[in-house]
Design brief:
The protein is mostly helical and 265 residues long. The protein folds into three domains: 59 residues; 75 residues, Methane Monooxygenase Hydroxylase, Chain G, domain 1 (Up-down Bundle); 70 residues, Alpha Horseshoe (Serine Threonine Protein Phosphatase 5, Tetratricopeptide repeat). It is built from twelve helices and two strands; from the N terminus they run ααββαααααααααα. A two-stranded antiparallel ribbon has the order 1-2.
Length: 265
């Protein structure tokens, strides 16, 4: 009985010893976690990455990807820190400086949506407009990006008229409005050269109604009068010429309008 008991105990001991060895042999070391620097240090590191230039192929080069990765680490590890909000804007700025305007616009737009009361919202709106503006081309090309830029500028000027960015925004607003008006005028001139008077007149009326006060009024008004002349709408043409003579005295257009009035009589 004692032998049997002793045999069982030995076998059990061997089994458990082998099992323990198997467990020890298959076990993995506990995972290690890399220590993350404080949020303020990460933010300073990201800003340092943006300000540090290296010369690659004789051209200055900034490691935007490294800076963006550092700022993203703040958002991921310290989402409720004040530096997380700053990091969102810093990522947008990094993309903008890199010329990746679609990515920058996404971050600027998210910033204004997530932090509507933040003091940096006027800046983000202005930068959003610039993202669209940088995608525009000459006035004779599609001006959809210009229209989109004007939407952000209108929003900035209506909600934050006294912000530091209101002045630059108003200047940019006039510049982009002029670009839109020049496109319309170019189309009108195109039709006018082909004697398509009604189509040309429609564009010149559009300049006067939609883009007044940009410096194109007198020219658009005179060309509209010429279109009416050619369309045998003499009374309307005469009224326009008289308005030019009265309101734009001592200009070449006033002299041209006076000559056309004399020709009508």
């Amino acid at each position: 009985m004692n032998r049997l008991k002793s045999g069982i105990s030995a076998a059990a001991l061997a089994f458990f010893a082998g099992g323990a060895g198997l467990v020890i042999g298959c076990s993995k070391p506990p995972p290690t976690f890399e220590e993350v620097a404080p949020a303020d240090e990460l933010y300073a590191q990201g800003q340092s990455d943006l300000s540090r230039e290296t010369f690659f192929s004789f051209l200055p080069w900034v490691d935007y990807s490294s800076a963006i990765e550092t700022f993203q680490a703040i958002i991921d590890n310290y989402p409720y820190s004040q530096y997380a909000v700053l990091a969102e804007l810093a990522i947008a700025d990094a993309y903008f400086e890199e010329g990746r305007f679609e990515e920058a616009l996404s971050y600027y737009r998210d910033f204004t949506d997530l932090h509507p009361d933040n003091e940096k919202v006027p800046y983000a709106l202005y930068q959003s407009a610039l993202c669209h503006e940088r995608r525009t081309r000459s006035p004779n090309r599609d001006q959809t990006p210009t229209r989109d830029a004007l939407i952000f500028l209108d929003r900035l000027l209506s909600k934050f008229p006294y912000s530091d960015h209101a002045g630059p925004a108003e200047t940019k607003w006039r510049e982009l409005r002029m670009r839109m008006a020049q496109q319309v005028k170019g189309i009108g001139d195109f039709y006018m050269k082909r004697d398509e008077w009604e189509s040309a007149a429609e564009r010149y009326r559009s300049i006067l109604n939609e883009y007044p006060g940009l410096g194109l009024d007198a020219q658009a008004l005179y060309q509209l009068g010429v279109c009416y002349d050619e369309m045998n709408r003499a009374e309307e043409a005469e009224s326009i010429y008289q308005a030019i003579v009265q309101n734009y005295r001592d200009t070449d257009l006033a002299q041209d309008a006076a000559e056309r009035l004399a020709a009508q009589n």
